[in-house]
């Protein structure tokens, strides 16, 4: 026997835990494969590492020959003493230099004819500031007036000249492409003379220097400079005409005591979209030019800041034993960790799609136990997953895992796993289809990795990118994960790994704080949304107790139309005395207390709002109903009558628009969670776990009903026997192998296990064969001894066999209520006379019926078969027999019959009359 008290929190948690363990045991290899995914991925990394090492083996062998051959290609050998390279200015190509164009109003630029063959367009520099005279004085000293080189003392003499190159800078300064290329080096001067080309020897490199004019132009303000720079760039000119400026200076408030300058330079020579390192920019010479010009302005032309050379730091021999995990870590491991998100999310949405959670809730499972057990399962799975990732990665020798502190890795993965689970619970409330959420989840997984690698990482590595924006981007959990993995990668690649003392110097401490806060907030929001969406509570349910006020409404003054409608409804109620009596009974129970009745519905209404221009739909119209324990109440009605809406309100799927219902004295609008503990439900469609057996289903739901120990075993076996699922080991087979009828019987057994106080059976015998149906009816009949049952059905035979009372439900309201005999007596005051003859004798049959019953009504006519309703008060059965015997002597009668009114006839008559009345009103 079931414990009469509801199952406690821990009893419910134990029931769900046992069910989940059983379910997961049947899916053990699926979970094992999931946990082994990191092993396969780490092995993939190891294979890539081996292939990379093999490819680089020959290069590494070359690196060992650096002493005998220090000039090996590719920068393999170490560079102890980097060459001293002359500083150069980035010069636009000949055909891209700034010239006169329609897009500019300035006329001081050179004519575009200088771009022709053999042309010599000058290199233009713009200058602006608060003081034009000072600006023009400084601009006069920017460029040299001649080119002269002392080969014995090369660097100082080169420092006095302004050299430039159209070749983009390289990735380092060990070998500047501008010097080593076939393109000339330019000497930028105020004017170029006739002899404008000079040979130049830089070590082993023989090149030539070509003169090009330098043009300094004044602009009134920085806005004009910005406009000219932008319109002259390839990004800012829709016509495709490029007018590149070499550099620009804003002297702002510069005077003889203050040197205040802003420098514009061309950054389009960077490899912004390349995975290779960013190229260097030739900015130092631009700084030196304006600084020297200002010094000349103050001290005269003999005073100079010599900018002799640019020199790279010494270089070690190139190493090709790069740890592939550290190189690919952020992107690769972001995908690896995020692969758990679709698994958790689809599992939650599957329970929602198959309505498994709601059926568990209807049988008494509270939200607390569900959240605790589900969260604990996902957290355990996540930790096993990431621990296996770290263990496997370390076992195969990946420095990414070995060098970084394991404690930091555990804390990082633990916090993110919790955040990911909380987000999965939150996101699952938005979706109801597994296919949809699967697509969305995998788009998030791969999209996050790609955006992190090609966008977020670029921002991290850009020194000028604001730190506040980095923090803002890390508010997206995927980027927080990427940032943490990126930091692991950076510290591992340096060879020392991340330790706890490194948290303040890296972004890891910031990431851990952000994820911890988001974990807490996401969990709170997910719990709140679950209460609103899944439990059907008001969005501000937490304020209801504070803001609860007595409701008062003034009656509206009825219009003439309302008065007319009220009169019609009163006339209709006169014919429905049974419904009126039920209403009075409910009102009396509410006044005196409804403890003696299991179910009391008091003016229960449900209105669906109008959509697409349609008026609101009244699904349930002020239902009054009382069902005591031990009674089976049958609800009959045509499709669309409102039966499903009524059952949905009683089981918590829908909130009533007004009115309420009491179940065991508990209000369904306020105490639905308590109502669930004493309720059993057999839904219209079977909601089962395909891999759990019938016995395992019953064990789970029995525990939710607080049935324990030997009583639980006996209850389960008794339930299996009662629904014919015990013999032959059927109860120990997966429910997915059951036929439709077997699933239906199991659903009924689930709804009745533990002797619930109230049970709702929605068409329980659908799809059963006659023998199984009769057996199931016996089960329901025995169960109703201690249970109030509300049963919906379209089988009149089932209704007569099981139901103590019946109610016919049409267009949202009860039209009649009573037991089968009362309804037949009240609405079936006639016999149904049927006779089949040849078509030529149909008139004679009509005359025969008129003679027996003057008020007879023909209700059916087809191919010689006619049916008539004969009022009982004017018909004698003996007289009907005599009339038929007499008719047989006059014409041939193929068949005839006289039947009393059936429940089906009553149903059809009541439904038709109600619908006719509704259409008239």
UniProtKB/TrEMBL annotation:
SMART domains hit by this protein: AAA
Transmembrane segments annotated in the record for this chain: 28-48, 324-350, 370-398, 410-431, 437-456
Domain ABC transporter stretches: 599-836
Origin superkingdom: Eukaryota
Topology with respect to the bilayer: Multi-pass membrane protein
Listed GO CC annotations: membrane
Keyword Nucleotide-binding assigned: yes
Coiled coil: none
Main location: membrane
Keywords: ATP-binding, Membrane, Nucleotide-binding, Transmembrane, Transmembrane helix
Keyword Nucleotide-binding (UniProt): yes
GO molecular function: ABC-type transporter activity; ATP binding; ATP hydrolysis activity; lipid transporter activity
Any Pfam family the entry gives: ABC_tran
Record's subcellular location: Membrane
InterPro entries, per database record: AAA+_ATPase, ABC2_TM, ABC_transporter-like_ATP-bd, ABC_transporter-like_CS, ABCA, P-loop_NTPase
Family stated for the protein in its record: Belongs to the ABC transporter superfamily. ABCA family. CPR flippase (TC 3.A.1.211) subfamily.
Protein name: ABC transporter domain-containing protein
Native species: Thlaspi arvense
